[in-house]
Structures are given as C-alpha cells and as structure tokens.
Amino acid sequence: MKLEHIQIQTPNIQKTTAFYQDILELPVIEKTINSVSIQAGNSILKFIEEPDFKSIYHFAFNIPENKLDEAIEWCRNKTDLIVIEDQNVITNFENWNAHAIYFYDNNGNLLEFIARHDLHNSETSAFSSKSILNISEIGIVNENPLELGKQLIEKHGLNFFSKNTNSEAFAAIGNDEGLLIMVRPNRNWYPTQTPSESNKTEIRLQNNGNSFDLKF
C-alpha cells in the first residue's frame, strides 16, 4: 500500500513552506496563497492554511534501511531530535523490524524517519533530502480504530498490518510501504506526551494498482 498524497492543515503557510523547503530541503511543487504542496520522495504532502488551527498531526517518512545513523547526523544540523531515554534518540521496533527517530516541524507536528529493514532498500549514497523515500505513515484518530479498520478493509480491500498487534485502542492498516496508524482520541503520540486529536485529513492511497481517496 502506498500513500500517494496527504493533505493536512497548518496555521501558517509561510512558516510551513520555509521549514520543509529550507530545513528538510524538500522541493515545493505548487504554492498558492493558502496552500503548499511538497514532494517527499514518491509522495506529495499538501498543507492547507487554517489560521485558527491549533492541533497537530503525526506522520512518518521511510528512509533507506541502512541510513538511520546518517539521518541522525543530518538532522542534528537542522532540528532537535526527540530523546527517547538516556540521551538515546533511536526507537527499536522489534516486532516491525524497524528503527526510527522523531522530531517536530514548525507546526509542532510529530515527524518520524523510519528505517524498515524488511524493505531491503539500502543505498550507498550519502543521506540527503533525496533519501526521503515516501510518506510511510499517517496518524488517524477515531473513537474505534479496530472498527474503522474493519470498515476500510471491507470497502477497499485493504489489510491490517501483519506485524502489529491490533486492538480497540491502536490499529494499523497497510504494509511497510504505507500505513494508516489509527488511534483513539487522547492517546499520547509516541514518544511524546501530546494527546491525539481528530483533525481533517485527506489521503490518496494506492493499493494493488488501484488509487482511491479517503477523507477523515
């Protein structure tokens, strides 16, 4: 499953454009008075300006599975990484066979670089913004994640993520290429103390060669 296009909100389009263009060095492919579209590998991340918006999103980017250490050094010159514990910034997701680091964008959105070792996507070139392969996760907040997952599976032929222990509080749909991370409201976004909130989100998915749109 692939996340082709994600549309979310920002209170300040100019500061958001500056962060993704100047800090993460991602190309801006379209900009209007109240929106900006950013190329993130094979995905597009679009922000719509809503001046009164005060909440945050969580989303992740896949990076080459052998480049996490280089990504850490690259980030250190640009933004503060979130410390997990004892000065360590790396999370080891053993069941998912992946390692990840976390940081914030200018909006307070929780961003993640994740190296998924089962994708076998090692690269030899030095880490750069071109190493950001795609949007690999987007957080969706719903009162009943498990039931929402079942509905999406029935309607669109998707699957629960086989490496995840899905529950009524936390469920994931998709695979290592792309995941919908579904959580209950007020569940803290790992590894922070920021509670999840349901925010307007539009997603274009590709699954088994078919593309379709979801709105939350």
TrEMBL record:
CDD domains recorded: VOC
SUPFAM superfamilies xrefs: Glyoxalase/Bleomycin resistance protein/Dihydroxybiphenyl dioxygenase (SSF54593)
Family annotation (Gene3D superfamilies): 2,3-Dihydroxybiphenyl 1,2-Dioxygenase, domain 1
Occurrences of domain VOC (ranges): 2-116
InterPro entries: Glyas_Bleomycin-R_OHBP_Dase, Glyas_Fos-R_dOase_dom, VOC_core
Pfam families, per the entry: Glyoxalase (PF00903)
Protein name: Glyoxalase
Organism (species): Flavobacterium crocinum
